[in-house]
């Protein structure tokens, strides 16, 4: 058996890829506006005011939001809040009970 016999043919791969992308529903985006700065005393409670804008009608049963925190531009993002029909607080040691 030839060593390259198991590799898919390029035409088949492109057809499969096209089929995959035709089955994936298009994403919808939402604009989130927040203040550029927020001054808060370290360790105190604060609310981050935000406004959500979309040109689409938002179906609350299909809407989900993941809120992440990134300490620096090279740091990994940490998810600390999810919204799927209700707010789900994810416990991060960094934020403790806040």
Description:
By secondary structure, this protein is α+β, with helices and mostly antiparallel strands. The protein is built from one helix and five strands; from the N terminus they run H-E-E-E-E-E. It has one helix at about 10-25; strands spanning about 30-35, 50-55, 65-70, 80-85, 85-90. The chain starts with 9 loop residues before the first helix and ends in a 9-residue tail after the last strand.
Beta-strand percent range: 15-25%
- CATH level 1 class label of the domain at 34-39 and 50-98: Mainly Beta
Total number of strands:
5
- Cross-sheet strand order for the largest sheet: 3-4-5
Total DSSP helices: 1
Topology order in helix (H) and strand (E) letters: HEEEEE
Structural class: alpha+beta
Going by CATH, the architecture of the domain at 34-39 and 50-98 would be Sandwich
Ends distance: 63 Å
Which topology of the domain at 34-39 and 50-98 does CATH recognise?
Immunoglobulin-like
The geometry reads as globular
Name the poorly predicted regions.
Answer: 6-24
Radius of gyration: 22 Å
The major sheet is characterized as: 3 strands, antiparallel
Q: Could you list some keywords that capture this structure?
A:
single chain, immunoglobulin domain, Immunoglobulin-like, three-stranded antiparallel beta sheet, 1 helix, 98 residues, Immunoglobulin V-set domain-containing protein, two-stranded antiparallel sheet, Myelin_P0-rel, alpha+beta, 5 strands
Give the secondary structure arrangement, pairings included.
Elements: H1 10-23, E1 31-33, E2 51-53, E3 65-69, E4 78-83, E5 87-89
Antiparallel strand pairs: 1-2, 3-4, 4-5
InterPro entries: Ig-like_fold (IPR013783), Ig_V-set (IPR013106), Myelin_P0-rel (IPR000920)
Keywords: Disulfide bond, Glycoprotein, Immunoglobulin domain, Membrane, Signal, Transmembrane, Transmembrane helix
GO biological process, one term: cardiac muscle cell action potential involved in contraction
């Amino acid at each position: 058996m030839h060593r390259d016999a198991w590799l898919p043919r390029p035409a088949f791969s492109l057809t499969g890829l096209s089929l995959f992308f035709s089955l994936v529903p298009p994403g919808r985006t939402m604009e989130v506006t927040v203040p550029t700065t927020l001054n808060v005393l370290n360790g105190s409670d604060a609310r981050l005011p935000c406004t959500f804008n979309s040109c689409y009608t938002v179906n609350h049963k299909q809407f989900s939001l993941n809120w992440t925190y990134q300490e620096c531009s090279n740091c990994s993002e940490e998810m600390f809040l999810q919204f799927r029909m209700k707010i789900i607080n994810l416990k991060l040691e960094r934020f403790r009970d806040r």
